[in-house]
Design brief:
The chain is mainly alpha-helical. It has 10 helices and no strands.
Length: about 210
């Protein structure tokens, strides 16, 4: 019962389409412009840098909330929480699922990069630090946000295995699920990968909007 509450609450948190809401508040439906994605990158390109940063922060917060707040709520409602690491992982993954397949938008959401980062900061901050460093280096070198995100997801999967404590019970569970999440994030970039290969992917601009 507890874990079900965690998953449902975290999924609904993740389903809040902050990027779409921000765009509509500025008179732009991000589903019809740019990459037609509700994520922070498309908001940044089509609505403006400050709004893209805000969308990223809010989507990031959904991941943190799923991993931290949803288990606390389950504990408050049921008077007992599941194992903390399992609850945090379940809540975080549910938030990512909500962002990627939001019930309010006919299950057509974002790619889950920011929300995944928020979840992982809550449960594996060191691995996220490594992944962020890779993301930043690739972005500066290539100016492709998509390539930076794909590279960071791959780096995260490697880092989570290298830093796992083999002495803990079920030590492989979190690395395995995080690796699955990284694969999902990469798979959600299939259109970007095709554009990268064809040389038609948009480069990030450092100029202010």
């Amino acid at each position: 019962m507890n874990i079900c509450i965690v998953i449902v609450v975290a999924y609904l948190m993740g389903s809040i389409p902050f990027g779409l809401i921000i765009g509509l508040a500025r008179g732009i439906d991000v589903r019809t412009v740019g990459s037609k994605n509700i994520g922070a990158t498309n908001v940044l390109r089509t609505v403006g840098r400050p709004w893209g940063i805000l969308a990223f922060a809010l989507d990031f917060g959904k991941g943190v909330a799923g991993a931290v707040l949803a288990p606390l709520l389950a504990n408050a409602v049921c008077g007992g929480a599941p194992a903390p690491d399992i609850a945090a992982l379940a809540g975080g993954l549910a938030a990512v699922a909500g962002h990627t397949w939001p019930v309010w938008l006919r299950f057509r959401g974002g790619k889950g990069v920011a929300t995944s980062a928020g979840m992982l900061v809550a449960i594996a901050p060191a691995a996220v630090g490594i992944a962020f460093a890779v993301w930043l280096v690739v972005l500066i070198a290539s100016r492709y946000v998509s390539l930076a995100s794909i590279s960071a997801a791959a780096a995260l999967a490697v880092a989570i295995w290298l830093r796992a404590s083999h002495s803990a019970p079920h030590w492989w569970l979190v690395p395995a699920l995080v690796t699955a999440l990284a694969i999902l994030v990469i798979a959600r970039h299939h259109a970007n990968i095709a554009r990268l290969m064809s040389g038609t992917e948009n480069r990030f601009s450092w100029k202010r909007h």
